Amino acid sequence: MHNESMRTTITLDDDTHEFATYYARARGLSLSAAIDELIRKAQAPARQAPPEIEFSENGFPLLPRTGRTITSEMVKELSEDDFE
């Protein structure tokens, strides 16, 4: 990894250049800094949206649907684990 800035020449489509220039001006950055920031944002892991909470007819929040059925035996087993 380089600790110094690397100088290079790139060719951008007109619409990409326009966007990057607008972004740079709006953020008070140089065009190079704006492009660097945009590339770093593109490399960042995508953030997952929080799950939407569903509510029953009575207004109680429901657990997310996983396709698995929670049985009374499963609940009993977990309850017993808490006391051991």
Can you offer a commentary on this structure?
The protein has 84 residues and is mostly helical. It has a domain of 44 residues. It contains three helices and no strands.
Provide key terms for this protein:
3 helices, 84 residues, mainly alpha, single chain, elongated
Describe the structure in brief.
This protein has 84 residues and is mainly α. It has three helices and no strands.
Structural class: mainly alpha
| Poorly predicted parts | none
| Number of distinct helices | 3
User: Helix and strand succession?
Assistant: HHH
The number of distinct β-strands equals 0
Query: What is the averaged pLDDT score?
Result: 85
Write the layout of secondary structure elements.
Layout: H1 14-27, H2 31-43, H3 72-83
Helix pairs in contact: 1-2
